[in-house]
Write a structure and sequence with these properties.
By secondary structure, the chain is an alpha/beta fold. Helices cover 48% and strands 10% of the residues.
Length: 301
């Protein structure tokens, strides 16, 4: 299996800087595992690494979508895996770095996503009655009926269309072993929660001083709406009240800080429950040396 180094952990803990340092030492390239940094123009609020901070290290999956486009975990999986193949083919080490846990898991594990509805031919089934759809599934994919209510026409039609392709929905689910498809070492950066919360608060204030409000104004002038998917990330969605005249800028900043702290708690829970993470406390005196030793041992396995 191809080796993939993964950097994860809560927001504001220092993942990007640590990943760049190791990339420079290990001839690596970084793949962003963030659901907002894919959008062009979403720089300050997403904490996107700057060109100066990259220190010459190639970064993938940044600025690949326009703000009006939708993004999905399935699309991320496709892009990240393609980047891993391309980086590995050049003899370099792929380093997946980010805090969007579901995206990282979808990349590393044998998750297969159902075909997009636009790729399925629903027409033959849309004129069928609900009972006819159930009868079709009973013949082609009876296990699908265990999870679909007979009155849910939308799901019945979709399941029938999938079954008509030759691979049933049930077969696709059963084929997934929920195993890693890469030889991945997952590194997690952590620190004392009170210290982390203060770092988060200071990070948001730094974003404010760097021009976060002006970034939002620019996006709105370009036609981006608070209803767009790109605006649903923390650091962006909170500004809606300000631009609608119901919140002050200080209230927005406080909301971003609160939501970021809450998100960091959810990130810890997700990573601990979903991944075999090797944790390093960024306030331990020798954490960088210990981490490098861990990585080098893994590389020579």
């Amino acid at each position: 299996m191809k080796k993939v180094l993964v950097f994860t952990g809560p927001t504001a803990v220092g993942k990007s800087d640590a990943a760049v340092e190791l990339a420079l030492k290990l001839n690596g390239e970084i793949i962003s595992g963030d659901s907002i940094q894919v959008y062009r123009g979403f720089d300050i609020g997403s904490g996107k690494v700057t060109e100066e901070e990259m220190k010459g290290v190639v970064h993938h999956n940044l600025d690949v979508l326009d703000p009006k486009e939708n993004y999905s975990v399935a699309l991320f999986q496709k892009q990240a895996r393609a980047a891993i193949e391309e980086i590995t083919s050049r003899g370099k080490l792929p380093i997946l770095c980010g805090g969007t846990g579901l995206y990282i898991k979808a990349c590393l594990y044998d998750y297969e996503f159902e075909k997009d509805s636009r790729e399925l031919d629903l027409t033959p089934f849309e004129s069928m009655s609900s009972q006819e759809l159930v009868d079709y599934l009973y013949e082609k994919d009876p296990k699908a009926l265990d999870t679909i209510h007979p009155n849910n026409r939308k799901r019945l039609i979709r399941a029938c269309a999938i079954a008509s392709t030759g691979t049933t929905k049930s077969q696709s689910i059963e084929a997934q072993k929920k195993e890693m498809i890469y030889d991945a070492l997952i590194l997690g950066l952590t620190c004392d929660r009170k210290v982390l919360h203060e770092r988060i608060n200071q990070r948001v204030l730094k974003m404010q001083k760097a021009g976060l409000r002006q970034e939002i104004e620019t996006l709105l002038h370009q036609g981006v709406s608070f209803d767009d998917q790109s605006m649903q990330g923390i650091g962006y969605k909170e500004w809606r009240g300000y631009f609608e005249g119901t919140m002050s800028e200080d209230e927005v900043i406080e909301a971003i800080q609160l939501h970021s702290r809450q998100f960091s708690k959810r990130q810890y829970t997700w990573f601990n429950n979903q991944f075999p993470v090797v944790w390093f406390d960024v306030f331990d005196e020798n954490w960088k040396q210990d981490m490098e030793a861990c990585v080098k041992e893994w590389l020579h396995e």
